[in-house]
Automatic annotation (TrEMBL):
It comes from Candidatus Desulfosporosinus infrequens. It comes from the Bacteria. It holds the Pfam family DUF436. InterPro entries: Antibiotic_NAT-like, DUF436. This is UPF0340 protein SBF1_880047. Belongs to the UPF0340 family.
């Protein structure tokens, strides 16, 4: 690895750590809730989505994310690319807890992406699922994770807009407000 790329990875790691600190403070996730992450490592290093998958970037991004996930006791779902129909890597415990249907596909560098490959290697008992309804999400590089979030997604705005060269979008979800003009609602958290 050349020095320029190594320095770039160091900068990415620093920004990512700041993003994660701010995100988890605002997302207010509780134990056993699901965080969906979509990541184009290609976009993070300034290439076109799907054209420069980088295991090195995934190796920088996933460990600090997993550390926070384990600390909070939440489930992580890592979304693959459209070549595997945006299937997600989750822990078997997550699939069991939420009654998710497991599907048969293995993520690969150019069919799923570097983050799904790294998640598959790093999870204790990884399985793939086709659908999930996450409680919050992080999208690096406009990978369109919205299909995997619960219906009412609320954007989380940070001063940081990019990790590396990838646009970042963050959200948490809340229950739907139902009823009419006479309906009462508890304070939302």
């Amino acid at each position: 690895m050349d020095k320029v790329f190594a320095d770039k990875l160091t900068d990415i790691a620093k920004v990512w750590d700041e993003v994660l600190d701010a995100f988890f403070m605002k997302a207010n996730l509780r134990s056993r809730q699901i965080l969906v992450v979509g990541c184009s490592t290609s976009e993070v290093i300034g290439q076109q989505i799907g054209q420069g998958s980088s295991s090195e970037v995934a190796e920088v991004l996933l460990p600090p994310l997993l550390a926070r996930v384990h600390q909070l006791g939440i489930f992580l779902a890592v979304q693959g690319c459209e070549h595997i129909n945006r299937a997600l890597v989750v822990e078997e415990a997550c699939a069991d807890h939420y009654g998710l249907e497991v599907v048969t596909v293995l993520p690969a560098l150019h069919a799923g992406g570097a983050m799904t490959v790294e998640a598959w290697k790093s999870f204790l008992k990884p399985v793939m699922v086709e659908r999930i309804q996450g409680h919050a999400g992080i999208d690096l590089g406009d990978t369109f994770i919205g299909m995997h979030l619960r219906p009412v997604a609320i954007p989380i705005r940070l001063s940081v807009k990019e990790v590396g060269e990838a646009h970042i979008t963050l959200a948490y979800t809340r229950p739907r407000l139902i009823g009419g003009p006479r309906a009462m609602y508890a304070e939302l958290k």
